[in-house]
Amino acid sequence: MGSSVLSGALHGIKADFPEYNNMVYITVTGIYLGGFVLGPFLWAPASEVYGRRMVYAVTLIPFTAFCAGLCGSKTITALLVLRFFAGTFGCSSMTNAGGLISDMFRAKDRGLAMGVFGAMPWLGPALGPIVGGFLSPISWRWAGAVVALFGGVLALLHLLYLPETYAPVLLRKRANALSDETGQVYRCVYDAAKPFSTRELIKTQLKVPFILLFTEPIVFVLSIYLACIFSILYLQFTSFPIVFQGERHWSPGISSLAFLGTSIGCNIALLYMVFWGNPAYAKSLKQKGYLPPEARLPSAVIGALIIPIGLFVFAWTASPARIPWIISILATIPFGAGMVLVFLACSNYLVDAYLPTAASVLGASTVTRSIMAVVLPLFTVDMYDALGVNWASSVCAFISLVFVPVPFLLMMYGSKIRRMTKHGREADDHGLEIAAARAAAIAADPEAGQVDADEKWGTIGEDVRTPIHEEDDPMRQAAMPKSPPLGP
């Protein structure tokens, strides 16, 4: 919501800071996403060094401060700078939530957790203009104050109730405590083979996402696809006022209600994932024991089909004003549902298909869509002036139409495409090894049953690390006596 809340209050910003061109006012929304380009490279490695809880603690407090500070902005430059830093610190929730969910849920349950979380990055921006639109008659500064208030409450809740969930950080703390207590050197199982290096971690976080983005065709295509959908959503923050305020002469508050269609679509997709999509996947996984990454894509097929349908209907019912307004708003429901279905399915697919480097793959996707969501909406006003409402809106529909075959092609040829590249082949082999080990464990002890095998080996699609047996202490195996002190 923080990214889009001021888009519904741009009239007030224009009144306070007049005589700038349209791109500057559109940048008030987009510059927040500029922080999403920088933030992942800061908070992702930080969470692996200091833990999830620490990152949330040190980012949500500055986020609240920057959101509160922009309420007192005296110049447009100050407003843009504060928005950028608010986005930089605020994106920690997007950057680390996937890791937090991976820490807490197994693959068969993670789809539900990711579904609830994954709908929020789409639902929040759709609700933001409604909040900003109704607060704009009072002052656009109140819109920023609402985000600051929410940020402060969330920061307090995180500080009070969020535990540390990242296993390597917890085990390293335990190892250090045991070393101090016993006089021996303890290392956790994650550092036993190779000592942990902060420098190497940071270098990997900065380098690997771009290597994967430009060497893995699947990562590149899906990142561009998600970026285009994300950009269309943010383009609507400028195009909806053109349609509903310019064409239909609605007030800013009433015109912001047009985003309810998108919000309803997001919720429908979420309900589908909760009550049908994820249970069906979990049931199939339990029956077969192994599912290829392509098993995540059926919902993406549905989403890819209904997105252009919704956008084309919107494009040709938004204008002229004699067409009932309800038709164009209803057309945004399939768009909202489709983008959530595509986002969740493609994100889960990327995680399953590139399991050892999943964090870097998602980082590449996040940076790509953030850059495009900043740049493409800048040309919205010029595009609508040049093409008119119908054809300008159709451009978005045609862009989404280009990507309709992508989920179908990946379902048929995704495995073959991965085998053609180094990282894809390694990830594919890694998944098959986990499946074979899991099958062998069940065959060796069939009485243990499916549940015990899941507990011991996990399932494909899970962030599986070295299996830890109950009889093994992950610290004790690496324990070494400290060198005795020199001298008397």
TrEMBL record:
<keyword id="KW-0812">Transmembrane</keyword>
<dbReference type="InterPro" id="IPR011701">
    <property type="entry name" value="MFS"/>
</dbReference>
<feature type="transmembrane region" description="Helical">
    <location>
        <begin position="391"/>
        <end position="413"/>
    </location>
</feature>
<feature type="transmembrane region" description="Helical">
    <location>
        <begin position="358"/>
        <end position="379"/>
    </location>
</feature>
<feature type="domain" description="Major facilitator superfamily (MFS) profile">
    <location>
        <begin position="1"/>
        <end position="420"/>
    </location>
</feature>
<feature type="transmembrane region" description="Helical">
    <location>
        <begin position="23"/>
        <end position="43"/>
    </location>
</feature>
<keyword id="KW-0813">Transport</keyword>
<keyword id="KW-1003">Cell membrane</keyword>
<feature type="transmembrane region" description="Helical">
    <location>
        <begin position="55"/>
        <end position="76"/>
    </location>
</feature>
<feature type="compositionally biased region" description="Basic and acidic residues">
    <location>
        <begin position="453"/>
        <end position="469"/>
    </location>
</feature>
<feature type="region of interest" description="Disordered">
    <location>
        <begin position="445"/>
        <end position="488"/>
    </location>
</feature>
<keyword id="KW-0472">Membrane</keyword>
<feature type="transmembrane region" description="Helical">
    <location>
        <begin position="210"/>
        <end position="234"/>
    </location>
</feature>
<feature type="transmembrane region" description="Helical">
    <location>
        <begin position="254"/>
        <end position="276"/>
    </location>
</feature>
<dbReference type="InterPro" id="IPR020846">
    <property type="entry name" value="MFS_dom"/>
</dbReference>
<feature type="transmembrane region" description="Helical">
    <location>
        <begin position="113"/>
        <end position="136"/>
    </location>
</feature>
<dbReference type="InterPro" id="IPR036259">
    <property type="entry name" value="MFS_trans_sf"/>
</dbReference>
<comment type="similarity">
    <text>Belongs to the major facilitator superfamily. DHA1 family. Polyamines/proton antiporter (TC 2.A.1.2.16) subfamily.</text>
</comment>
<feature type="transmembrane region" description="Helical">
    <location>
        <begin position="297"/>
        <end position="317"/>
    </location>
</feature>
<dbReference type="Pfam" id="PF07690">
    <property type="entry name" value="MFS_1"/>
</dbReference>
<protein>
    <recommendedName>
        <fullName>Major facilitator superfamily (MFS) profile domain-containing protein</fullName>
    </recommendedName>
</protein>
<keyword id="KW-1133">Transmembrane helix</keyword>
<feature type="transmembrane region" description="Helical">
    <location>
        <begin position="142"/>
        <end position="162"/>
    </location>
</feature>
<feature type="transmembrane region" description="Helical">
    <location>
        <begin position="323"/>
        <end position="346"/>
    </location>
</feature>
<feature type="transmembrane region" description="Helical">
    <location>
        <begin position="82"/>
        <end position="101"/>
    </location>
</feature>
